[in-house]
Amino acid sequence: MHWLIDLIVLTFVIFCAIAAISVKDLLGTAILFGAYSFMMCLLWAVMGAVDVAFTEASVGAGVSTVFFVAAVFRTSRRTKD
Amino acid sequence: MKFLGFIIVCLTGALLLYGTGEFPGWGDPHSPASIHLSNDYIEKAVEQTQVPNLVTAVLADYRGFDTMFETAVVFCAGLACFLLLRDFKEKKERFYRHTPTGVILHVKDSKKVLKTGKEFEHMDKDWVPSDLIIKTICRILIPFIQIYALYVVAHGDFSPGGGFQGGVIFGSSLILLAISYDLKVLVKRVKEKILGIFAAIGVLIYVGIAAICMPMGGNFLDYSKLAPLVPGDPHHIRALGMLGVEIGVGIAVTAVMVIIYINIVSEGRHEEGL
């Protein structure tokens, strides 16, 4: 059962990572990074590292997404390249 | 150039994957870390520190010196954000709304400041404050988030959590206030000076608790020597020392998160923003 959850979540992690660097809209990238962090948080929880999962959820999915959105708000929303 | 970058990324990824092959399997009992180190912690940590959560015991006690400098790194991040972004120059133009009529005034003279109150209110140029539903929901949610953050800090010895996570959650509750209302509401309630002082006090609490152990006859960060200072069961003194240290970390992280957010979102002017 473990490997099935691992497989599904890992697929989502890779999907989010590739989407985050290929999307032109930086606000979308910030959201995708949040989703990526949340998937990583699930992986930590599956592996039993609950403290790390907690940190990932609060810092990675929570505050850093807000910082990204704040930075996008003050700069440009579309990438140049 | 893009092609070259792609090749470099692929090479690095292949090297990393090749390196992963040498790692011991997940939870392998014969890996070097599990042979003696983990066993030592698992068998003796509860007996030595009276803290059921081994992660906290390792982070705040066995590896306390490391965590102390992690807190210092967080403080430095806040300081760097302040030094790079803070802009003390007054903004040249301001927007006001005349509340009874709804007329919006655009003041271009930087010296002319209208008094805000019942008649005029501040307006942001590119941020419309959220509507009533969001404001009300956030006003109801924020106290619960803050109590939860305090619980995470205080209960870090017994369950997952600790100063860092609790501090981040408390800081994000304050950020939620700024997002749902206005940046000015947050800046008015939590002064910049107080934030700076709190960030420093958090680190000083950690270093202070660590340093008090030395005149009491122990090593730096040797909480067991604090027993005469604290009433109660002397066996729990290491757990209490960890709790004090975690509170310090929580205060520092809360303040730093809010400092970083305010400085990023308002371009260092602390006036307008999300």
Describe this structure in words.
- The complex is a heterodimer of chains A (81) and B (274).
- By secondary structure, chain A is an all-alpha fold.
- Chain A has one domain.
- In chain A, 84% of the residues lie in helices and 0% in strands.
- In chain A, helix 1 packs antiparallel against helix 2.
- The mean pLDDT of chain A is 90.
- Chain B has helices at residues 2-20, 32-35, 37-49, 54-62, 64-85, 132-154, 163-180, 183-189, 192-212, 237-265; strands spanning 94-98, 103-107, 120-123.
- The mean pLDDT of chain B is 88.
- Chain B has one domain (34-88, 129-265).
- In chain B, 60% of the residues lie in helices and 5% in strands.
- Chain B contains 10 helices and 3 strands.
- Chain B is mainly α.
- In chain B, strands 2-1-3 form a 3-stranded antiparallel sheet, with no helix packed on it.
- Chain B is globular.
- Chains A and B meet through helix 3 of A and helix 7 and helix 10 of B.
Spell out the key features of this protein.
heterodimer; A: 81 residues; mainly alpha; 3 helices; 0% strand; B: 274 residues; three-stranded antiparallel β-sheet; 3 strands
Question: Which whole number gives the mean pLDDT of chain B?
Answer: 88
- Could you say which structural class the secondary elements and strand pairing of chain B correspond to? mainly alpha
Strand content bin of chain B? 5-15%
Proportion of residues in β-strands of chain A: under 5%
